[in-house]
Specification:
The complex is a heterodimer. By secondary structure, chain A is an alpha/beta fold. Helices cover 21% and strands 30% of the residues of chain A. Chain A is built from eight helices and 22 strands. In chain A, the strands form five sheets. In chain A, strands 5, 6, 9, 10, 11 and 20 form a six-stranded mixed beta sheet that branches. In chain A, strands 14-15-13-16-17-18 form a six-stranded mixed beta sheet, with helices on both faces. A four-stranded mixed beta sheet of chain A has the order 7-8-1-12. Chain A is globular, with a radius of gyration of 21 Å. Chain B is α/β, with parallel strands linked by helices. Chain B folds into two domains: 6-172, Response regulator (Rossmann fold); 227-349, no CATH class. Helix content of chain B is 34%, strand content 19%. Chain B has eleven helices and 14 strands. In chain B, the strands form three sheets. A six-stranded mixed beta sheet of chain B has the order 2-3-1-4-5-6, sandwiched between helices. In chain B, strands 8, 10, 12, 13 and 14 form a five-stranded mixed beta sheet that branches. In chain B, helix 3 (68-80) crosses helix 4 (95-112). The radius of gyration of chain B is 28 Å and the shape is elongated. Classes of the chains: A alpha/beta, B alpha/beta. Chains A and B meet through helix 5, strand 16, strand 17, strand 18 and strand 22 of A and strand 7 and helix 8 of B. Strand 22 (414-418) of chain A pairs antiparallel with strand 7 (180-184) of chain B.
Amino acid sequence: MRLELRWSEVDELVAGSPTRLAGKRLAVDLDALRTLLAGDARLTGLRLDLVHPGERCRVGRVFDVVAPRARLEGEDFPGVLGGVARAGDGATLALAGVAVVATDQQTDSVGTLAVIDMAGPNAALSAFGATHNLVISAWPAPGTERPDYLAAVRLAALKAAVALARAAREAEPDRVEVLALPPSPRVPVELAHLPRVAYVFQIHSHQRPTGLDEGILYGDPVRRMLPTIVHPNEVLDGAVLRGFMGRSVTTWATQNHPVIRALYARHGRALWFAGVVVTVAQATEPERVRSALLTAGLVAHALGADGAVFTKIGGGAPHVDMAQAAAQCEALGVRTTLLVEDMSTDGSAEGMLLFDFPGVDALVNVGSSHEPLTLPPMDRVVGADDLAPRLLGESRATYGTLCGAIEQVGATRIMAEVR
Amino acid sequence: MASEPLRVVCYVNQFFGQLGGEEKAGVGPQVTDGAVGAARAVQQALGDAGTVVATVICGDNYAAERGERAVAEMLALVRAARPDLVIAGPAFLAGRYGVACGALCAAVQAQLKIPAVTGMQAENPGVELYRRQVHVVATGAEATRMLAEVTRLVALGLKLARGEALGTPAAEGYFARGVTRNVVAGASAADRATAMLLDKLAGRPFASEVPRPAFPGVPAPRLIKPLAGATIALVTDGGLVPQGNPDGIEALNATRYGAYSIEGKASLEAAQYDNPHRGYDTSWVKQDPHRLVPVDVARELEQRGAIGKLHETVYSTVGVATTLAHSARMGQEIADKLRAAGVDAVILTST
């Protein structure tokens, strides 16, 4: 498979008609976009705001962030927005410097939602403090159940992401990123000495069951999914979306997957990228054992990997689920490294890890989401009018509250250091 | 910009306060203006950066024997001197002195909200007791290099007092406190993991970023009486609570557990129970609480005489993101109560 990401840099985002990219200036016809997004009967009162890096603005009630992408041919976000068709092969328009931020206006337990600071010290901690953001606020139409509301909100974000990226159709891309990987077994003889490395990507945790409309893999809500091999390009090109449980993980990070990028960057030089296994964290022990067994089998026997990188999504059960699969790999002679979150809730080094398996000894951490953080005063709050009085002033929060600061797939440089 | 000289209070024992040796170890807390004894080295190390405004002296035995009361008395003397920073010791390998230094620093930080630093040799019992709460600078066993050691204490203390970022324990010379702090690394976690894997594959050394937990193994004790004569209790960390969650058990990071009577109940009625646990899909347990706490089956076993008796109290907490400290405490408390009630064995259901 060969994917071309045709990148256009955007350094200015303005309202204007028609939607077009001129140089690095992206004008968005907000009225037309609002009409497009408001066609969903599950939503009402749809609002669009533009926020910019350096602006003393805080985005509240953040639900998910989507990178603007549009396939030149084929289906966008297949299985969720477009029909089920293969992603990852062909050319896709991509905008750098812009993100689509979806907010959740329904939930009362706002503690599970995140904020984005566009200025101040926290802006530097998140990718979304440095992007121009289109913020979508939409309320549930009367009678809309929560899973339907969230599905509608996400769909609006995906539509907006495609609409923005399509503005680059006529533009000459600033750079073209080529992601090409032949079928896993076909290694040229001269590169056959390289260690074969797989990536095991946990894409959902059954700690919270998915809704019927909560498409995660090609639109499938992965309720009964067993470990499955996909091509890394499919992940980058919209086949994998984040579910509705958004703890320290964004769809944006999946579309720009840092582990896949890191393996691609060393592919053919320091390693041979053998492929991606997608898994879900299981809810019960027999399922967990079965999933770990099958994962290790795919990594060791189907992909023939010498090593594997693992990430997780969610909390403690996924953390252990990932480690059980890694332990099974180690038992088959596959060396592993795991990206773990600091699981301690009181900042003690003793509580960082919830497992101890033989061989699972190479751990990188993505930081502590429980560590306190100060949200400084801002001039404007977007996406959370009802919380504005609180979000305008200085308040205490945690790293986990700052969207994009901690990404479980390892997108950021934040780490918890033992002191 | 020159900063204001800091007000520093030192704490030394009777020996380093020049009151005398072991014969003066019973002397209670006293304060002298300015730097006395070992505190002079602190003043020397501070230079223009600060002034030792007072030295608190206390005998080692007094501090060791009176414990909290001695600390409270010293704390009052410290507070009166209005310091910006407290420097205790260094205590080197002197055990009573080291423990007192740690206790005073911990109290100063917690109660006066003033930064404090001390120094000891690694074997001093004060290190293990207080390194989690207090910055303890590693020193030699004896006071042979007093000025050099004190200079490192002072350097760390000044950083704390000025609110400057501290380096790693290795860089700053203090004992690892076993606490984690978010920092910005040189590369993304994904890049670091890939590099670490390549090192591991090549057999090169690599440094894991997470210490492996030192969970002690707990061997399951043998049941010393026949099951038919044993009292069995049901305990869970799966979060079953009566409707209304009367003990207010937290949805995650729990600090509380509940004790719920099942006296007279042959089974649990779903409508009477709830589950605040946020770590797993609780819908199945809410539908039928026996999936978590099998009172129905246990009663049958009791009826049939397969077990002697079902204990009439169920203990329940929420095990998700719970700290080790609270887990250990709650486990101990529940175990104590079960033992006092004559329970022989426990069925512990986890999720």
